[in-house]
Design brief:
Growth Hormone, Chain: A, mainly alpha, 403 residues, single chain
């Protein structure tokens, strides 16, 4: 779990370097705001569509091998970005970064599903969420400090090469066999996975949760400085606290959900209320951030950090419970691809609404509406949270064939 968590931490650090370096890159290469925006979005153009294939590879070649290969590709893309001569080179390297990072969550969640019993999935995923949520906070702080002294190019090279050090302990690690409580004799087909209502309910809920996250992560600094009148220093402090609370809440909620399940609570009565309440809380926070005065807006931001963090263990514990270790890679590949479509549209759609209306009211209203959509997905579309008996579908197919 420590190595998997470190991998997703590195994943988020490397993908976030561009945002930290954007002012320096723009000055040196003479890029327009549109070109910077395209560089930010290009990552998702390869990252999103390749995740289902990455899940398939993790199950057929093994998550250890696939995650290692992904680390090599995205670390090389990060390091080579420091050598890029212009916009086209950076664009191609951002696409390559998405290719490498597409394997991270399908492979990492498969390792968790194969290593952790069902009653410990909340803690395992809360720990992993803590890692990837700390990536933007620590990566931005360390990257920004180093770039101020060294420039952006050496930092990209340094971070890319440093990421490769993770491979040394990983090569000594063997993915264990699933424990008896999660061992599964049947490997379902991709068609069987795609036919499940649970997959599409979780995918829609994941998309809605990610929409508010990407909206806040992209536009929060601009909103606090340009609309609320914060200084850069005050904005950085507020945003940092929100990220830290986000990560801490994920870690705490993972342990709490496991405790409830070990005490006898059904996973459905644990995960569905947590996910539903988180979406309702997110809706209220979106409204409060734009409707309240500055102090109330910051309070709503911090509350959103806690509320959103509480939902993160369930994002992957729920599909791991449904799919089992033999299908988690493909299931999460599809679900995470759907969830990260939000990264492709939330930043640009919010910007269009701000340009069209001249204020942020409509952008926050749309984020609140997405939270309402997520509530419906987690509470009404998602069925009972329990391991799927894939052999039942296989027996039914055999019976119809025999007939």
């Amino acid at each position: 779990m420590l190595l998997v968590t470190l991998a997703v931490f590195i994943n988020y650090v490397d993908r976030g370097n561009l945002a930290t370096a954007a002012p320096l890159i723009q000055d040196e290469l003479g890029l327009t705001a549109t070109q910077l925006g395209l560089l930010g979005s290009a990552f998702y153009y390869s990252y999103v569509p390749l995740m289902p294939a990455a899940g398939w590879l993790a199950e057929h070649l093994g998550p250890k091998r696939v995650l290692a290969a992904g680390m090599v590709v995205w670390s090389a893309a990060t390091a080579c970005s420091g050598l890029a001569g212009g916009f086209v080179g950076l664009l191609l390297l951002r696409l390559l970064l998405g290719v490498g990072e597409s394997v991270a969550f399908p492979a990492a969640t498969k390792v968790v599903a194969a290593s952790v019993p069902l009653e410990r999935l909340g803690s395992a995923n809360g720990f992993m969420a803590f890692g990837y949520l700390m990536g933007p906070a620590l990566g931005t702080a360390a990257g920004g400090y180093l770039m101020a002294y060294l420039g952006w190019r050496p930092v990209f090279v340094l971070f890319g090469l440093a990421s490769l050090a993770w491979l040394w302990p990983w090569r000594r690690f063997a993915v264990p066999s699933p424990p008896p409580s999660v061992r599964q004799p049947i490997t379902p087909s991709f068609a069987a996975i795609l036919s499940r209502r649970a997959l599409w309910g979780a995918a829609l809920g994941h998309f809605a949760a990610n929409y508010t996250y990407y909206f806040i992560a992209t536009w929060l600094p601009f909103y606090l400085v340009k609309v609320r009148g914060f200084s850069m220093a005050a904005m950085a402090v507020s945003a940092s606290w929100a990220y830290l609370l986000n990560a801490a809440a994920a870690l705490a909620m993972g342990a709490l959900t496991d405790r409830w399940i070990r005490l006898g609570s059904d996973p459905t009565r644990v995960y569905k209320p947590v996910m539903g309440v988180a979406q309702l809380g997110s809706l209220l926070c979106m409204v409060a951030m734009v409707a309240l005065p500055a102090s109330g807006s910051i309070a709503a931001l911090l509350a959103f950090g806690v509320i959103a963090g509480c939902s993160y263990p369930g994002l992957f514990a729920i599909p791991q419970t449904f799919a089992g270790p033999n299908a988690t890679g493909r299931w999460v590949g599809v679900q995470n691809a759907c969830g990260n479509i939000a990264g492709m549209i939330a930043p640009v759609l919010s910007g269009l609404l701000v340009d069209r209306t001249g204020h942020f009211d409509a952008a926050f209203a749309l984020a609140a509406a997405m939270s309402a959509l997520g509530f419906g997905a987690w509470v009404w579309i998602l069925p009972r949270v329990a391991p799927i008996d894939w052999s039942a579908g296989r027996r039914g197919l055999m019976t119809r064939t025999q007939r």
